[in-house]
Amino acid sequence: MSAPILEVENLVKHFELSSDNWFKRDRPVVRAVDKVSFTVGERETLGLVGESGCGKSTTGRLILQLIAPSAGAVRFMGTDLIAAAPQKLRAMRRDLQIIFQDPHASLNPRMRVEEIILEPLYAQGEKPSAALTNYAGDLLEKVGLSRRHAQRHPHEFSGGQRQRIGIARAIAPKPKFIICDEAVSALDVSVQAQVINLLQDLQAELGMSYLFIGHDLAVVRHIADRIAVMYLGRIVETAPKAQLYVSPRHPYTQALLASVPVSHPRLRHSRKRLRGEMPSPLNPPSGCHFHPRCPLARDRCRVEDPMLREIAPGQTVACHFAEETASPAPLSTPS
Amino acid sequence: MTDKPLLSVRNLSVGFPAGKGHVLAVNDVSFDIRPGELVGVVGESGSGKSVTALAVMGLLPPTAMLSGQLLFEGRDMLGLSRGQLRQLRGRQLGMIFQEPMTSLNPVFTVGDQISEAVRALGGVSRKQAADRAVELLDQVGIPSPRRRLEDYPHQMSGGMRQRVMIAIALAGSPRLLIADEPTTALDVTIQAQLLDLLNGLRERLGTAILLISHNMGVMAEVADRVVVMYASRVVEEADIFQLFDTPQHPYSEGLLGSTPDMAGTARRLITIPGAMPSPGALPPGCLFAPRCPKVVDACTKAQPPLIDLSGGQKAACIRAPKREAGVPA
């Protein structure tokens, strides 16, 4: 694998809530992101998957320093973004962009498309010019829109077109890295396919890396090279995608994959469903966060946090009993 | 399963006033649901699938203009009085919506809201209604149901709330349950649990289900038969296996091709260029023609009718029978 462009090490974010009891000083803490580590290589796409509330979007925002991490390190092209001075951070953002989920909320309705697309460059101190206007037109064409769209406002576009505008804005400063935060989740399937293909074409052409945050495992499988699975603020498994989808080793990954709707009615079978729902991150279970729902859970799981460890080349799993999960369908046997 | 349909939608059209004229959100839609059958209606936003569901429930706003027939066991629901319709809705038809957050009243307990639905059917005491509420919560798989009666909606997760919605819809033991995108707002593990629940209801209670969804995977998971809608019209109707093996309408094919699958084939996604036309500016002829990869001149001349193909499959495409004869597309 190529040298990492992004290294995330023991990233932690605790959100303090207001206390129920006015007299009590200690306030409840949500551990939204709990010692998350991963790397993303050059031209690589890392998929970050998990259910709502697992901390995947918070992780994306922490990397960009849109919210301040509580602890940990984020190194981007060798520079620690957390320690970086504001000017330095701003300069680094030229190479580090984000595409948001909601194409209706992420574009300023009062701005014209050209201003929206060029905003990241203006933020870097560039001044409006004929050359930039021309560049905005080029960008629009690159994302499959037309130059004449530059003078319009966001409300004149459909959801898919708006997402293309968001993509044009993200690639405007020629970044090396883009965080796609549920970038295609709000789109209808035929339009979603267009945007996925566009993201793949742009990556091939511009040589960018992606952190692709998503909850749709089929979409993530389609676009990612490597995948990290999050559960309640922690990464429970990482693996190259071929390995993750064929031989997942964490019981949560296995259950998650078993929940994805089949791609053909012939593949219907009664599968062992995951019991219950994800607990609140306010009061996560002791030991392995997954143990209350895990078919393999034993006493050790209730007390001891499992560490991520390499179980096969390139595949890391945070499960005490990962050696036992290799059988093809451990979840199909009732516990 | 008998062959006599429970619900027959016949040439249903629904228009809404817009500017000086009106636009058709649903245009000449026909399909049947037999007892115990799970029929899916699939399509993208704006295809008219939700309006179809609301029309069947009689829940459209008064401004909506309806034509056609909605036959429930042979009786046209469009001719019923409000009172008769209300009776039918309680005892024969139940509905669940996409948003379990907004469909429940935040200031009443879950128990109150289920009991209200039970008592609206008449003839039960408060105590009996509460007992029935416990039974219903148990039926939809909520653990320790008696304790959960006192919960308010905000104390429950999205998946739990959707189960409560299903419990309310089941209060009158309806013969037909209409589910409009019931799992769209939910995580995939919860979606799987709810699809299992719907399947279980059908098996245990024989409830027929009309499932509205944009997700082909959801259809593959539970549907017996699927109606594919595009820009207010039905473009294809097929048995679920027929639809996945031999889709006859290019739009169905496009929908299947643009859905990333878990088989992991490293193919490029097939896309349907462009976007669905807005109901106010429909193209002439076949509504899909401007986006269709197989378009021929004749397509823009007239709207192709939904024609019967073999095995109960229907498609509204002038090229459909050709492919059936084994001629490659």
TrEMBL record, chain A:
Query: Which keywords appear in this protein's UniProt record, sorted alphabetically?
Result: ATP-binding, Nucleotide-binding, Transport
Sequence ranges assigned to domain ABC transporter in this UniProt record: 6-257
What GO biological process, any one, is recorded here? Answer: peptide transport
One GO cellular component, as annotated = plasma membrane
Query: Taking the first listed entry, what is the main subcellular location of this protein, grouped into a coarse class?
Result: membrane
**Protein topology in the membrane:** Peripheral membrane protein
Looking up SMART domains in the UniProt record yields: AAA
UniProt-listed Gene3D superfamilies: P-loop containing nucleotide triphosphate hydrolases
Q: Does the record carry Nucleotide-binding as a key word?
A: yes
Which terms does the record give in the GO molecular function aspect? Answer: ATP binding; ATP hydrolysis activity
Annotated compartments? Cell inner membrane
- Which PROSITE patterns does the annotation name? ABC_TRANSPORTER_1, ABC_TRANSPORTER_2
Q: Which Pfam families match?
A: ABC_tran, oligo_HPY
Q: Would you identify the family this protein belongs to, as annotated?
A: Belongs to the ABC transporter superfamily.
Q: What is this protein called?
A: Oligopeptide transport system ATP-binding protein
- What organism does the UniProt record list as the source? Devosia enhydra
Automatic annotation (TrEMBL), chain B:
Membrane topology term reads:
Peripheral membrane protein
Subcellular location field: Cell inner membrane
CDD domains tied to this protein: ABC_NikE_OppD_transporters
Keyword line:
ATP-binding, Cell membrane, Membrane, Nucleotide-binding, Transport
Q: What is the top-level taxon of the source organism?
A: Bacteria
The ABC transporter domain extends over 9-256
Cellular component GO terms held in the UniProt record:
plasma membrane
What biological-process terms (Gene Ontology) are attached? Answer: peptide transport; transmembrane transport
A GO molecular function annotation here is: ATP hydrolysis activity
**Entry annotated with the keyword ATP-binding:** yes
Q: Does the keyword Cell membrane apply?
A: yes
Q: Which family does it belong to?
A: Belongs to the ABC transporter superfamily.
Descriptive protein name:
Oligopeptide transport system ATP-binding protein
Organism name: Devosia enhydra
